Amino acid sequence: MALRAALRTKCALSGFLSQPSSSSRHGRVCASTVLAAQQRSNSTSSKISVDFDQSTGVAVMHMKSPPVNSLSLDFLTEFCISLEKLEMDKSCRGLIITSSLPKVFSAGLDILEMYGKSPESCGEFWKAVQEMWLKLYSSNMVTVAAINGSSPAGGCLMSLTCDYRIMVDNPRYSIGLNETQLGIVAPFWFKDTMANTVGHRITEMALALGMLYSPAEALKIGLVDQIVPEEKLMSTAEQAMAKWLAIPAHARQLTKSMMRKPTVDRMTSKREADVQNFVSFITKDAIQNSLRVYLEMLKKRKA
Ligand SMILES: CCCCC/C=C\C/C=C\CCC/C=C/C(=O)SCCNC(=O)CCNC(=O)[C@H](O)C(C)(C)COP(=O)(O)OP(=O)(O)OC[C@H]1O[C@@H](n2cnc3c(N)ncnc32)[C@H](O)[C@@H]1OP(=O)(O)O
């Protein structure tokens, strides 16, 4: 609860839509850069750890919530707090998001947060999902997803919010918005985020069929930007980051805002209604039944 209270306070202070402005980090004299004797810092919470290299201004966020980095309320809360801290540190210009777990980037939203829960819990959970999306999609930092494992549904959404996606070329990994396979529906802002990346028609078909793509297929439709062997993932992410950071920050940030603001505005203007929609949808008996069947299928597949 303390974490959630901390997050609420931080969010109230910073707002969600940090627009690039004359006070953006570009060109600022940065106290932490000047004063820091230590070039690297590390912060760790139970589900996230962050390595920040002050010499490059790039942080690497490692998701480390076994077994599958599912996006539970606690995970999302820690994630948003870490993100907010980096966003407020003007010496941090870039963020690489990756997983510390083998085989899985993120299994998406934690199904157990949506199954058998009260409407109030579901509402609190959904607000945290919205917040993660808003913070990432409107971040002033350059964001790179280093996708080192499967990344279905909410995991795919998290990747899609980044500026650039690099995935390990392993055909056993998959990525996509597979919600319909669970008997649920990707909300409009998941759909918008994917359509902004791969276009309307591909999104329509992908969402309707709940498609999960191999890395090679994902590259072909533009769902990821690059595929690389596992051992080259982080060096490629660093190279991509350097390329994006070489662009004048104010120009890059204004361009990002110009491209993403209509989508962000649409979501923020419907935020409350979206929570109500989610709660009334997910608590329906038929939807709860679909989630139960899906959870059983996951367990059977394992056995
Ligand atoms: C017009 C009206 C519209 C209204 C619309 C309004 C609102 C919208 C409504 C709803 C929107 C919801 C959006 C939902 C988004 C999501 O992200 S849903 C989650 C989707 N995720 C998945 O389908 C992934 C499922 N998992 C897997 O496929 C695999 O686990 C894997 C990620 C590929 C990893 O495989 P593997 O390494 O083999 O691990 P296991 O399968 O053995 O799993 C280990 C344990 O983890 C549990 N688990 C897996 N995924 C999840 C998850 N997402 N949540 C919770 N738990 C998960 C799995 O059951 C195993 O548990 P046990 O060890 O057996 O206890």
UniProtKB/TrEMBL annotation:
Keyword Isomerase carried by entry: yes
SUPFAM superfamilies reported in the protein's UniProt record: ClpP/crotonase (SSF52096)
EC number assigned by the record: 5.3.3.8
Main location (coarse class): mitochondrion
GO MF term list: delta(3)-delta(2)-enoyl-CoA isomerase activity
Family to which the UniProt record says this protein belongs: Belongs to the enoyl-CoA hydratase/isomerase family.
Pathway involvement of the protein, from the record: Lipid metabolism; fatty acid beta-oxidation
Superkingdom as given in the UniProt entry: Eukaryota
UniProt record, GO biological process: fatty acid beta-oxidation
Chemical reaction(s) catalysed: (3Z)-dodecenoyl-CoA = (2E)-dodecenoyl-CoA; (3Z)-octenoyl-CoA = (2E)-octenoyl-CoA; a (3E)-enoyl-CoA = a 4-saturated (2E)-enoyl-CoA; (3Z)-decenoyl-CoA = (2E)-decenoyl-CoA
Oligomer and partners: Homotrimer.
Pfam families in the cross-refs: ECH_1
Record-given protein name: Enoyl-CoA delta isomerase 1, mitochondrial
Role according to the record: Key enzyme of fatty acid beta-oxidation. Able to isomerize both 3-cis (3Z) and 3-trans (3E) double bonds into the 2-trans (2E) form in a range of enoyl-CoA species, with a preference for (3Z)-enoyl-CoAs over (3E)-enoyl-CoAs. The catalytic efficiency of this enzyme is not affected by the fatty acyl chain length.
InterPro entries registered for this protein in UniProt: ClpP/crotonase-like_dom_sf, Enoyl-CoA_hyd/isom_CS, Enoyl-CoA_hydra/iso
Keywords: Acetylation, Fatty acid metabolism, Isomerase, Lipid metabolism, Mitochondrion, Transit peptide
Enzyme class: isomerase
Location(s), subcellular: Mitochondrion matrix
Segments forming a coiled coil: none
